Amino acid sequence: MNLKELDDILRTQLAIADFDDISLNGVQVACSPDRQITRVAVAVDACQATIDAAIQEKADMLFVHHGLFWGRPIAVDGIHYNRVKALLDADVALYACHLPLDAHPVLGNNAQMAMCLGMKEFDPFGMYHGQSIGYKGRLPFPMTCQEIAKLLGFSELYGMNILPFGKEEVETVGIISGGAADDVFQAMEAGLDCFVTGECRHELYHTLRESGMDMVCGGHYQSEVFGVKAVARYLEKEHGIQTVFIDRKTGL
């Protein structure tokens, strides 16, 4: 299929039009109209390292969570010029999906983490711009914060922090990937035992301690590999497109 056909599929599957997002979701850099998309590289971030790797992997398109265009005009110069030029020179398309890939009930970062934790049922949670982008639910059995982190593949080497100020074993969890530390207050209001997110904030430490709340911060990057990997599996299974995951950890 060509880029237009794949764009139509992804826009429908990920409900891109339903979200008010600062990210330019969808095609950010196009390839030739007649180029067939048979191999897609997926990564968390659009940066020179992932663009170069996608080109080396002979991908026709790079699908990312964090793209190059974020709601305001930006001059195509400096490192931005280098990134766009590399894509254009190699005729590789760039496709970005931000909030829709956090919120998707199957392929999204948060739903995928819920499934990794064995949560068979989970409900929308975490309002952002008038929409729920996270999920909450009950674990299949009580777990420690360390067990939650292990199931999700979080590592201290790449940005994980655990603030274990609540129950030793938790039963209910709210999940919002990325930089959603402040949404722990929504988890408190919902009466949840634990909040799982990406980044932590210094200002929350004493509030969490005094409130008796557990929070597992996996690192922004580590909490957002789930969605792009799920999209890769979807493209392979449903559309016969080859995929490759490009892992460029930030440690944050």
Structural class: alpha/beta
Instruction: Count up the domains.
Output: 2
Number of helices: 9
CATH architecture of the largest domain: 3-Layer(aba) Sandwich
Quick one: how many beta strands? 11
Mean pLDDT: 97
Q: Could you describe the largest sheet, including whether it forms a barrel?
A: 6 strands, mixed
Measure the end-to-end span.
36 Å
Please report which band the strand proportion falls in: under 5%, 5-15%, 15-25%, 25-35%, 35-45% or over 45%.
25-35%
Strand order of the largest sheet: 5-6-8-9-10-7
pLDDT < 50 stretches:
none
Radius of gyration: 19 Å
Q: Give the CATH H-level superfamily of the largest domain.
A: NIF3 (NGG1p interacting factor 3)-like
Layout of secondary structure:
Blueprint: H1 3-13, E1 26-29, E2 39-45, H2 48-56, E3 61-66, H3 78-90, E4 93-96, H4 99-103, H5 109-116, E5 122-128, E6 131-143, H6 145-151, E7 161-164, E8 170-175, H7 184-189, E9 194-197, H8 205-211, E10 214-217, H9 226-239, E11 242-245
Parallel strand pairs: 2-3, 2-11, 3-4, 8-9, 9-10
Antiparallel strand pairs: 1-4, 5-6, 6-8, 7-10
Helix pairs in contact: 2-3, 5-9
Description:
The chain has 252 residues and is an alpha/beta fold. It folds into 2 domains: 3-97, Udp-n-acetylmuramoylalanyl-d-glutamate--2,6- Diaminopimelate Ligase, Chain: A, domain 1 (3-Layer(aba) Sandwich); 102-220, 3-Layer(aba) Sandwich (Udp-n-acetylmuramoylalanyl-d-glutamate--2,6- Diaminopimelate Ligase, Chain: A, domain 1). Helices cover 32% and strands 25% of the residues. It is built from 9 helices and 11 strands. The protein has helices at residues 3-13, 48-56, 78-90, 99-103, 109-116, 145-151, 184-189, 205-211, 226-239, and strands spanning 26-29, 39-45, 61-66, 93-96, 122-128, 131-143, 161-164, 170-175, 194-197, 214-217, 242-245. It is elongated. The two termini are 36 Å apart. The mean pLDDT is 97.
